[in-house]
Amino acid sequence: MLPVERRKQIVTWLNQEGALSISEISKRLNVSEMTVYRDIKPLLEEKKIIKTSGGISLTPITNDFLNACTYCLKESNNRHPVQIILNDLRVEQLCCPHCGLLRYKDIEKDVSQIICRDFLSHSTVSARMAYYLMDADFNLSCCQPQVLTFESLKHAEQFQKGFGGNIRRFQEAVEEIQKRMNGEHDCTCHK
After folding, report:
1. The sheet that has 55-58: what strands, in order across it?
2. What is the pLDDT of residues 106-153, one digit of tens each?
3. Are 64 and 77 in contact (CB under 8 A)?
4. CATH of the domain at 20
5. 103 and 169 housed in the same domain
6. 153/109 same-domain check
């Protein structure tokens, strides 16, 4: 097997398994560990993989260098971002709760944790425990239909009194945003 073929195989295994030790790769390819180190050198230089304490893994997907939302690809400079932590510990950055809920629905089985920010206090909140205000008469200039997150029901209700809208729990908000994006309700997502 040529070095380029071995590199492709290593990346395939990493996509399937997340991380591998050098000795495991050596056994699987039936080559020396020194050969494995030579094979992975270009992958390290191209930043496709990273060294870990146990061997190597794929470079985590973070959009910091792109500063873009994983879902809509907008520049992610919103004050109300969402982070999805996957079971393989990769982290996805999303610009707003709208995109966070849609992305969650797409990859639900792969999600370990989803985190958002409280609209008023900006404190970090488990998205599964948050309250979601939809249809409020308040423009954040982000994706539509707009979704605001609150840590407490009391704060969501107080904001609702001033700006209207409907309060939903996590699963209800996921289902509602999905319905709207599928055209079951009026929606204008600026994707």
Report:
1. 19-20, 55-58, 49-52
2. 999 999 999 999 999 989 999 999 999 999 998 888 888 999 999 999
3. no
4. 1.10.10.10
5. yes
6. yes
